[in-house]
Amino acid sequence: MNTIEKLMDIIRKICPYTKITSTTELIDSEILTSIDLFLLVSEMEDTFNIHIDEEKILAENFSTPEKIVRVVLGEELD
Q: What is the DSSP letter of 32?
């Protein structure tokens, strides 16, 4: 399972009743609330064994799963 798939699994656990793709607008469409964002960051830190700096926890960095992978996790998508 690659990074984007792992991330989308985390998002689906937080928002189980919403269909999520790699380009789904998470913030603008109000899929993720502020509490959900906190849970997402926590789960990402545990799953990927990383620490996400507070400066990166901005709505624009969490707009889509693709952007989260690029900006927050620092990986390029295939």
A: S
User: With left for phi above 0 and alpha for psi between -120 and 50, is residue 53 left, alpha or beta?
Assistant: beta
H-state helical runs in the chain:
3-14, 34-48, 65-67
Tens digit of each residue's pLDDT (9 = 90 or more) over 23-53: 999 999 999 999 999 999 999 999 999 999 9
- Calculate Rg over the CA atoms of the chain: 11
Amino acid at 27: I
pTM: 0.89
Residue 46: CB atoms within 10 Å: 10
pLDDT, residue 76, reads 63
In order, the DSSP letters of 57-78 are --GGGGSSHHHIIIIIS-----
* Orientation angle between helical segments 34-48 and 3-14, nearest 10 degrees: 140
